[in-house]
């Protein structure tokens, strides 16, 4: 039986690691997983977990791949013996519109795939870096370093695998973009907070160089950080839970345009489209993060109440599209 070949970036930790394990140990034994990472010295936890889970021989192979380096991507691609890619996925990136710049790959997620006949090759891209803190508090080069991985790394992976997917008129792209064509499907998977080593991947540390920011901005950041810590405590998901959403999208015959791993933030999502001005969304997000009184006036008043009225049943995006 031909197996679906999956290529995943960022597998040294987080969602990438858990996704590689989940697919390699799947009872169907229908996946061949290429788990890639920038430094193979970090492969120990993955290989130990694979052994403890009893992953079948030949179901998991590690490769060195640095998404910042096109030559590294090409070298890893050349080592995929099946010679095709069926699923191209990548982790959701999050940006914050508030007083703080938050460029955070919301977890490790999948990238590339392709398939020919019944055998398929899938790739999931999860490599990512983070930047959290007042914009003026980060040293020169920090934003560039994050974008080089999170944005340009995605572009390089697409450039490496997408042409072949188009030529075969077969393939799937999981997170990030949202388009569909006869040759390939693209789904956006939106994650909330997930328990991973993401804080260790923040450029310049949490908050950056806060002494560069004024007192009011520092105070706002500390309040925002407390809010984030509370949300992670109350709503943080285990990577295994998030991985199952990826698996559902990957296996769906007609994948949805958008998937959510949690319903907690769907009311805020709905505000993005219910108020075209964006004012209700910003007011509700500000209220949630800073516990301030909602802005007065028709643009912001009642945003929190409006968000509370939106039930999850109205907003639910399919996790297993029919």
TrEMBL record:
The keyword Oxidoreductase applies. It comes from the Eukaryota. Gene3D superfamilies: NAD(P)-binding Rossmann-like Domain. GO terms for molecular function: estradiol 17-beta-dehydrogenase [NAD(P)+] activity. Residues 297-315 have a biased composition (Low complexity). Residues 108-123 have a biased composition (Basic and acidic residues). SUPFAM superfamilies: NAD(P)-binding Rossmann-fold domains. GO terms for cellular component: cytosol. InterPro entries: NAD(P)-bd_dom_sf, SDR_fam. The keyword Oxidoreductase applies. One of its GO terms (biological process) is estrogen biosynthetic process. It holds the Pfam family adh_short. Residues 105-125, 292-322 are annotated as: Disordered. Keywords: Oxidoreductase. PANTHER family: 17-BETA-HYDROXYSTEROID DEHYDROGENASE TYPE 1, RETINOL DEHYDROGENASE-RELATED. Belongs to the short-chain dehydrogenases/reductases (SDR) family. This is Estradiol 17-beta-dehydrogenase 1. The lineage of its organism: Eukaryota, Metazoa, Chordata, Craniata, Vertebrata.
């Amino acid at each position: 039986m031909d197996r679906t070949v999956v290529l995943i970036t960022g597998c040294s930790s987080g969602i990438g690691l858990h996704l590689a394990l989940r697919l390699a140990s799947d009872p169907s034994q229908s996946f061949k997983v290429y788990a890639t990472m920038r430094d193979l010295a970090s492969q120990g936890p993955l290989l130990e977990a694979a052994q403890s889970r009893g992953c079948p021989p030949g179901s998991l192979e590690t490769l060195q791949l640095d998404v910042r380096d096109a030559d590294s991507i090409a070298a890893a691609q050349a080592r995929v013996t099946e010679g095709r890619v069926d699923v191209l996925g990548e982790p959701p990136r999050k940006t914050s519109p508030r007083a703080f710049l938050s460029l955070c790959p919301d977890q490790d997620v999948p990238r590339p795939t392709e398939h020919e006949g019944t055998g398929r090759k899938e790739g999931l891209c999860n490599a990512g870096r983070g930047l959290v803190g007042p914009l003026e508090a980060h040293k020169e080069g920090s934003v560039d370093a994050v974008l080089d991985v999170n944005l340009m790394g995605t572009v390089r992976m697409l450039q490496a695998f997408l042409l072949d997917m188009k030529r075969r008129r077969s393939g799937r792209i999981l997170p990030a973009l949202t388009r569909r064509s006869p040759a390939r499907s693209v789904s956006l998977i939106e994650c909330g907070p997930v328990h991973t080593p993401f804080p260790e991947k923040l450029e310049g540390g949490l908050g950056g160089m806060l002494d560069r920011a004024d007192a009011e901005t520092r105070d706002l950041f500390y309040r925002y950080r407390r809010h984030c810590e509370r949300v992670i405590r109350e709503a943080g998901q285990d990577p295994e839970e998030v991985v199952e959403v990826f698996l559902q999208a990957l296996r769906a015959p007609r994948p949805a345009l958008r998937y959510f791993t949690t319903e907690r933030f769907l009311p805020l999502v709905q505000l993005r489209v219910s108020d075209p001005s964006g004012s209700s969304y910003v007011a509700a997000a500000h209220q949630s993060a800073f516990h301030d009184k909602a802005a007065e006036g028709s643009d912001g008043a009642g945003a929190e109440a409006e968000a509370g009225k939106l039930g999850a049943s109205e907003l639910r995006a399919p996790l297993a599209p029919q």
